[in-house]
Design brief:
Length: about 475
């Protein structure tokens, strides 16, 4: 058989045009979703009396056989058949005969492709919420194991105030929690059915879109047929959420890379997650976080790419929109790779508590606290700041830290000092003094961990609910 749309043409398509316009090389990834959508569509055609029941059964059986063949790898797609939709339709007609040609009644590839991508991304969103959940759990486990480990907290990459290492890790748990929440929120927009919009205007057949939606587990249908076939904002939303996740992963990557340098020596990534150098035998390189940091660029690129493709397209479908797929697949793969590696890499990371402790001891990050001490004695904060600035300068000139100074030395800078400052300056006390909701004090971090764990239970329940629902609708 020639082209499924060949009737109007008198010439063969140019070979280069066929290759240039075909999407089958990449949209073959949508085979399962395409069949799932077709089965729901043809079932509805039967229920509405648009097709006789026998034809519906024949088509459904044929579609299942085609999908089995695709899954077994016993199937060769043809560039000449352009895309996954026409390749499957062609394979169906080869399998069941001309009756297969009835499948496309009341449907267009425009609403078909949009439906496939909604089905595809819906699954991915749940998968990513689950992967984020695993990463959050690994971070929480490390936080629990480091509930008494203190590190210098940084601003401007300069030591600022001591904090619990657990508190630092829990910052990422919060970020990934919002990332998961964003994905969960986008689910309701992704879970909207475009099918039934036809090419752009709807269809003359008495179809039942809500029935198709119900079969496929969609919560609602697109209100407007032009919108249904011509917007890709659900993909853009996913690409921007993916970009934000990669940005968070990239910041954590940067910290892991710094922390595993000899200069910091705060953590050691497990051998299984590092690689060596072909020339320098001593090297152990943090390639995984480096690559995650690097691949963040392509994920941003895919977002900007699709925004640009869409920005001047008149309604409704334009072939430009076929460009929505490769970036989406690439982002899905890139994000999968990063998240799958990150959870076990965090779980197996060795924390050098001793080095962290030394960094805290040889450090002025407790300076704010003696300024606060003087404020407690009635000195205005600005003056206290000045006094401590001078004290720190004295320490630097003498090669000492604040805890090394005698009370006499302190008193040179202010008569308000007394020997309670030695307790105020202890890193544990500095940390525990920040006993506000969201602060670094041990009781606050312990409660934050408990809250995060209960949020994670809710996320796990959400994932399970989807898995159940999708089992019913496929
Ligand atoms: N392969 C096409 C795409 O991905 C499917 C829709 C084709 N529709 C059309 N009118 N040519 O966008």
């Amino acid at each position: 058989m020639s082209k499924l749309w060949g009737g109007r043409f008198t010439k063969k398509t140019d070979q280069l045009v066929e290759e240039y316009t075909a999407s089958i090389t990449f949209d073959k990834e949508l085979a399962e979703e395409d069949v799932q959508g077709s089965v729901a569509h043809v079932t509805m055609l039967g229920k509405q009396g648009i097709l006789p029941a026998d034809d519906v059964d024949t088509i459904k059986d044929g579609l299942h056989r085609v999908l089995q063949r695709i899954k077994r790898g016993d199937w060769e797609y043809a560039i000449a058949d352009e895309d996954i939709h026409m390749n499957i339709e062609k394979a169906l007609i080869d399998d069941v005969g001309p009756v297969g040609g009835k499948l496309h009644t009341g449907r267009s590839r425009n609403d078909q492709v949009a439906t496939d991508m909604h089905l595809y991304l819906r699954k991915r969103v749940v998968e990513f919420v689950d992967l984020l959940h695993k990463l959050q759990s690994a971070l929480i486990e490390q936080a629990k194991a480091n509930i008494d480990t203190i590190i210098p907290g940084y601003t401007h990459l300069q030591r600022a105030q001591p904090i619990l290492f657990a508190h630092h890790l829990m910052a990422y748990v919060s970020m990934f929690g919002r990332d998961a929440e964003r994905l969960q929120d986008s689910y309701k927009r992704i879970n909207t059915l475009p099918l039934g919009a036809g090419a752009l205007a709807g269809t003359t057949f008495p179809i039942d879109r809500h029935f198709v939606a119900k079969q496929l587990g969609f919560d609602r249908v697109y209100e407007n047929s032009l919108d249904a076939v011509s917007d890709r904002d659900f993909i853009l939303e996913f690409l921007s959420h993916a970009s934000i996740i990669m940005m968070h992963l990239s910041r954590l990557s940067e910290e892991l890379i710094l922390w595993s340098s000899t200069e910091f020596h705060f953590v050691e990534l497990d051998d299984a997650f590092c690689t060596g150098s072909s020339i320098m035998p001593q090297k152990k390189n943090p390639d995984v976080p480096e690559l995650v940091r690097g691949k963040t660029g392509r994920v941003y690129g895919n977002l900007v790419g699709l925004l640009t493709v869409l920005k001047s397209l008149p309604l409704a479908y334009n072939k430009d929109m076929q460009e929505d797929k490769e970036g989406m697949f690439d982002t899905v793969r890139t994000l999968q790779g990063a998240l799958q590696l990150f959870a076990p890499m965090i779980a197996t990371m060795k924390v050098n508590k001793e080095t962290m402790r030394q960094a805290v001891n040889q450090d002025f990050s407790n300076a704010t606290d003696i300024a606060d001490f003087l404020v407690g004695k009635g000195l205005p904060f600005r003056q206290a700041h000045e006094v401590i600035g001078k004290t720190v300068l004295y320490c630097i000139q003498q090669g000492k830290y604040l805890l090394d100074l005698t009370l006499e030395e302190f008193k040179q800078f202010s008569p308000l000092f007394d020997d309670r400052i030695y307790s105020v300056l202890q890193p544990e006390n500095v940390v525990n003094a920040r006993n506000v909701y969201g602060g670094t004090a041990t009781p606050q971090v312990t409660e934050a961990i408990a809250r995060a764990e209960s949020d994670l239970e809710a996320t796990a329940a959400w994932v399970t609910e989807f898995v159940e629902k999708s089992r019913k609708s496929s």
